[in-house]
Amino acid sequence: MFFKRTPLALLNLIHDRRKFLTSMAGVGFAVVLMFLFTGFMNALFDSQLQLLERLNGEIVMVDRLKTNMFVPRAFARRRLYQARSFEGVEAAFPIYISDANWKNPETRRTRPVRVLAFNLADPVLLLPEVTTHLSQLQLPDTALIDLRAREEVGPKQAGVVSELAKRQLRIVGTFSLGTDFASGNGNLIMSDQNFLRFFANRGPNEDERSFATADVGLIKVKPGTDVNRLVQTLQTRLPSDVLILPKDGPNGFVERERTYWQENTTIGFVFTLLTAMGFVVGIILVYQILYTDVADHWSEYATLKAMGYNNLFLLSVVLQEAVILSVLGFIPGFLVSALIYNAAAGTTGLLFKMTAGRIIGLYVATFFMCLISGAIAVRKVQATDPAEVFGL
Amino acid sequence: MKPASSTAPVDAFLEESAATASAVSIRGLDYFFGQGELRKQVLYDINLTLPKGQIVIMTGPSGSGKTTLLTLIGALRSIHEGSLQVLGQELRGLGNSKLVEVRRNIGFIFQAHNLFESLTASQNVEMAVELVGNFKNKRQQAAAMLGQLGLGERVSYKPASLSGGQKQRVAIARALVNEPQLILADEPTAALDKKSGRDVVTIMQHLAKNEGRTILMVTHDNRILDVADRIINLVDGRLESDETLSHFQETHDPKKLDGQMFIL
After folding, report:
1. I need a labelling partner for B44 at 20 to 30 A (CA). Which of A42, A96, A257, A389 fits?
2. Rounded to a whole number, what is the distance in Å from the CA of A307 to chain B's nearest CA?
3. What angle, 0 to 180 degrees and rounded to 10, lies between the N-to-C axes of helices A8-15 and A311-348?
């Protein structure tokens, strides 16, 4: 019965083409605002996890006091060797991480970058560029540079020669990872042997690094092993100076990192507030659109009431208009947002992810935005007195 | 002041059969606007019976309460005092949803056509058909009604491409498509030229005569008074006169100037 009705709501909305386009643009604008603010928020969080998600292992071992990747705390590497003796552990890889100043070869200015190092025989990172450059990385004083590092680090290509921690370094290739809070301006990847060349002795003001300690331990389990059970066993049997977590899952290392940034920075608060502002702007815009429609068709709606339509019907017309606006405004808003995400990812090196869950989530927000506006505008229709149409 | 209706010949004759044979029957109706101190009476002791099949024209100066009376009969306002029966249903004390039910049996025609610009002529009429739940044949029904009013060629035109008279005819089609027994019209010809206005009232006259519909029309348009069976005059909220057309013409004929005309 509903589909046989004259689609009054839709026809009223699209009757005036220009007004319809402005209405769509209005809703789209609110949608873009929300996408942009949630996008930046998610990008800041997601970027913290880019490196972790590329680690080739199921279990992560870190120092108990390393509350997040930003804290430079190393643990005894022998814990990894101890872990290797447990049933179900296939391999355990140490990863060495340190920050150092990189000199931009063109401007001669130094910028801090993050150096990731590991034994080249260990398949630590799921990056194809690393495996193809293995033989070059074995040469002394060589490294790969992150293509998505910020512009300030200078040219990002093989053959560049510059200084890292005041020691000459030759770039032999590139890879693609991206920046985050901890990595500063970008990432470099080198062999553990080269890591020692650069960081074993950087003078009295810096920590001495050796193979006795590692920053992140990565444990690869045998197929068919219960990861959570193994984590439990490792945690109880190994000394408690290390924290052992599954990489993924609700209690995993990746999630812990995300929670840390959510709870210890104002990113979440600031961007949630901005998103809420976008939401409110949307409510006001849609209310204006619906209110104008009702005001313009005041006498027509009153006539419908005089003919015998009840308030419920008029209410449904306004709410239908709200829902139609939410759909038709969301689509262009989403498309424009996708373009902006691409552009922003290019300039910042942050990771802008447009996942299905986020798209659905924002559509639901848009839907409620329009519904709330509709509910406010409806009060105007309900106040319509059909008696007033006579003698107007 | 004594209500004029008691002197009306037509009314006296219809008195006994009022409840059954009449479309509208009003007894001792008083109506007030406002509350408390600001309470102002606009209608005083109205007694009026509209038998079925009659065209009644209501005249009177502006502010005399014509529109108020029309909205009361149309179940658009609820009455406080007196009795008002429309199509056999007592309106006094009816709830809002019941009033909406009553309205579905009444055709309203307004001074403005009040058509949705976004809908075609047919769709505007179909909105009325949908009210009675007839979804299957709404198209045919609307087209047939528009055809009867000479708009067969304009069924899928939007109001913007119709003339004033055509728009008013679409509005009439919308009011008539459900075959209401009572039609209330407020200045239906005010916005129309002479010919369109004449067409509109001819259609209405046709309906009343052939199909026994009752029509109550408020108008100042002297050009269409001749379609009336009966003309009632409302002044300051009281029924001042209620006369047949011929009597009205006699007393208002400019050729028979009598002294009465100049006493103000």
Report:
1. A389
2. 6
3. 50
